[in-house]
Amino acid sequence: MESIITIVGFLGAGKTTLLRRLITNYIDNGWMPFIVLNDYENANLDALQLTDKIDPNHIRALTGSCICCSGINELRNYVNRIPERINGITLIEANGTSDACSLMEFLCVGLNDRFLPPIQVSVVDVKNWQKREEHNELESNQIQVSSVIVLTHIENTTANRQALVIKALKALNPFAKIITMGAIDINLLSELVPSKNKAEVFNHQKAHWSSCSCDLPNLPDLDCIYNICQALPKSMLRVKGCTKIGIEESYTYFERTPDGEVFVRPFNGIPITGSKLLTIGPKSKLSLLKKVIEESLVNANARLL
Questions:
Q1: Cα separation of 56 and 44, whole Å?
Q2: Which residues are within 8 A (CB) of 206 and not within 5 positions of it... i.e. 6 or more apart?
Q3: Facing residues of 43 across strands?
Q4: Among residues of the chain, what percentage have pLDDT more than 70?
Q5: What DSSP letter does each residue of the chain carry, written as one string?
Q6: What is the pLDDT of residues 38-59, one digit of tens each?
Q7: Quick one: pLDDT at residue 97?
Q8: What is the C-alpha separation between 61 and 92, in angstroms, rounded?
Q9: How far apart are CA 41 and CA 60, in angstroms?
Q10: Which of 114, 210, 229, 305 has the fewest CB atoms within 10 Å, counting from its CB?
Q11: pTM over 0.70, yes/no
């Protein structure tokens, strides 16, 4: 029977980093993973970044649906249509605002008999755990029915901070195994069973956020990316995009994490939807995105004169 591992965690916690690590480890050990990605806006953008790891035919992108409620039937149908493989394993990365408890409750119903009951792995950003203000309840919800909790962003955190976070996690989910990214044993993951922990009642509507996307023209230089990311309000907890810079033929990918850090790297391939700017969180409006882009171009023209 085939295992299903769902990866959950708050925006920017490191879910995709964990997913890439798991894909590599499973392939290196003779497994054949199948990947399902979910995001509010253009999950295909993230899917393309995995094609250096895995055959594109073994990746499915589910965009715009909340897989913990309205999109659960689509997700379940995706999973049930996954082809049978020798040593197959299915990895699902949920979007960063998923109601993780509801996701597990609904996903367990209606799957084909060839699949084992899904297990959940939660990614926790030690540096920012429970510093989300009004989103703290959502973040704590995302670890309550996980079988494994993976600690990330522990660099530059004190031993005291790490101990406090682990204590809080154990109070919310005493049954979960708590490990770091480097300590993951893929054989252990495949043998886990669903958590027996009882989750606290959560207002599901708190998992529903606004999101937006718009076309992004070629940008004159990298400074435009940083200007765009800095100009967008902090209430947008996730900003990402892809475009060409200057006269370069290849594409550049960028993202702003919830704590405001901006990361820029080469994009793998050509985005099938063209260059885009994507945002998740309050005030995600098309008019604002267009205004910020236009202002960055005006400033670039003045800077480059």
A1: 11
A2: 135, 137, 138
A3: none
A4: 91
A5: -BEEEEEEESTTSSHHHHHHHHHHHHHHTT-EEEEEEEESS-HHHHHHTTTTTS-GGGEEEEES--TTTTTHHHHHHHHHTSPP-TTEEEEEE--TT--HHHHHHHHTSS--TTBPPPEEEEEEETTTTT--GGGHHHHHHTTTT-SEEEEE--TT--HHHHHHHHHHHHHH-TTSEEEEGGG--HHHHHH-----PPPPP--GGGG---EEEEE---BSSHHHHHHHHHHS-TT--EEEEEE-BTT-SS-EEEEE-TTS-EEEEE-SS--TT-SEEEEESTT--HHHHHHHHHHHHHHHHHHH-
A6: 775 555 566 566 767 788 788 8
A7: 81
A8: 10
A9: 14
A10: 305
A11: yes
How far is C-alpha 74 from the chain's CA centre? 18
Rg from Cα positions in the chain: 19
User: Strand 32-39 relative to strand 59-63: parallel, antiparallel, unpaired?
Assistant: parallel
Q: ∠ at Cα 32 (29, 38), nearest 5°?
A: 120
C-beta separation of 129 from 178 below 8 A: no
The tokens describing 115, both together, are: 């699949």
Strand-pairing partners, residue 119, are 5
Give the model confidence (pLDDT) of 245-289 as tens digits: 999 999 999 999 888 889 999 988 888 778 999 888 888 889 999
Place of tokens 């953008």: 45
The Cα 109–Cα 118 span in angstroms is 10
Map tokens 């945002």 to a residue.
279
For residue 107, count CB atoms less than 10 angstroms from its CB and return exposed for 0-12, middle for 13-18, buried for 19 or more: buried
Dihedral, 288, 290, 294, 300 alpha carbons, nearest 10: 90
Segment 97-141, tens digit of pLDDT: 888 888 888 888 888 999 999 999 999 999 999 998 888 999 999
- The dihedral through the CA atoms of 274, 275, 278, 284 has a sign that is negative
Question: Position of tokens 């594409």?
Answer: 251
What is the mean pLDDT of the segment spanning 183-202?
81
